[in-house]
Amino acid sequence: MVDLFDAATTDTAGTPAARASSPLAVRMRPASIDEIAGQEHLLEPGSPLRRLIEPGGSGRTAPSSVILWGPPGTGKTTLAYLVATVSGRRFVELSAVTAGVKDVRQVVEDARRRLATGGDETVLFVDEVHRFSKSQQDALLPSVENRWVTLVAATTENPSFSVNSPLLSRSLLLTLRPLETEHVRELVRRAVTDERGLGGSVELDDEATEHLLRLAGGDARKALTILEAAAGAVLSDGSVAATDGEAGAAPESEGEDGEAAVPHVGLADVERAVDVAAVRYDRDGDQHYDVVSAFIKSIRGSDVDAALHYLARMVAAGEDPRFIARRLIISAAEDVGMADPSALQTAVAAAQAVQLIGMPEGRIVLAEAVVHLATAPKSNAAYLGVDAALADVRAGRVGTVPHHLRDAHYAGAKALGHGAGYRYAHDWPHAVAPQQYLPDVLAGSRYYDPSDRGYERQVAERLERIRGILGSEDTGPAARSGPDVR
Predict the structure, then answer these.
(1) Contacts 24+ apart (CB under 8 A), 412-417
(2) Which residues of the chain does CATH 3.40.50.300 include?
(3) Which CATH number is 286-375 given?
(4) Mean pLDDT, residues 186-207 taken together
(5) What gap in Å lies between CA 58 and CA 407, rounded to an integer?
């Protein structure tokens, strides 16, 4: 349990104060609503969260329990912090990883005593609430019901599945959106110049900034952690250079006024900070499209090694894994097709798994899908078939639906001849009824031409027999002989 209102960690106003030794991400936590990035939809004037944060927001019109759901590094802890600091309340944090029912009850009882003696209201922040057991979550219910604490719970998993229904029904669920690149860029820029952060002690080169943003992947905490490590290394090298002049240290230089120039954090410094080499890859430029194109073409060409190489380049450069997964789904349908129908199942499962577990473990799931697709037999017959059908439709070759196939379930339909002569497939040998299904203007058209590769070879053999039956002049279902199309 962490009580941020312990005397050793509070400022003169009685609110939590980060120490100089605190991590950069902690020191740069927004001190006001105006500094929050990317969650404007939750902080509009009059919104429940804004009423809870702003001074005086502890009234009965503000929610007594809030669940913040969103990806890592989007500001869940920051919002909980602001609920306490801006409104002047006491802040207590519990981690669902380490806290038990006893810890929850202790916090609640302490909050009740403070309220009874006229003390400050308590904001109880529970991080990773989805890790709380049912009994732990149940222990929170009385305090929420009676407003003994203002509960702010954070989770990266869907609360509908991870939070008990009684607690969920008593809470306001707020969904945080992933941070855009520009939001993280602004936070990094502020951390470089702000006195709470690096205070202008270094400058961040443009190339280093772009690489840092790619590595962060929309996670503000990760971006600031990388920045702090890179800046610390540069400043440490500069200190060594000034005292010992060791080889390899940052070179000394002077500005126009003769003073020492501000050290620069370059691409190599960011690489060294995260121990990851920068990959020539621009998510918004030509390199992005070139690498993605080569990735898909390598899968189509069945070169599994090349496909894994391009996957690795995208992963190392911080490409959104959901984008990669979407491309794999398209490739499974377009290039593998019916030659191996299970490829699409693998691609869809990979997309769902990546969404569930995230990175870096998601790379393993993506690699498995890439190997399956690249080594599978290939057929684009279904892709070509639907495009050929679309070409006819767009050219106006549609015709009318044959009368025997029209809906005959509404009143008066039979009088119009709808359904007359329809042959029910299950009454015929092998459940294939010989009759015309296409409109007259398209009778005999062929759109799907299966290949002889993989599973589609079996489809081709079956389809040949089916088309033979459909085109026959058989007039009744009595005879149960004929070609086997099972």
Answers:
(1) none
(2) 2-175
(3) 1.20.272.10
(4) 91
(5) 61
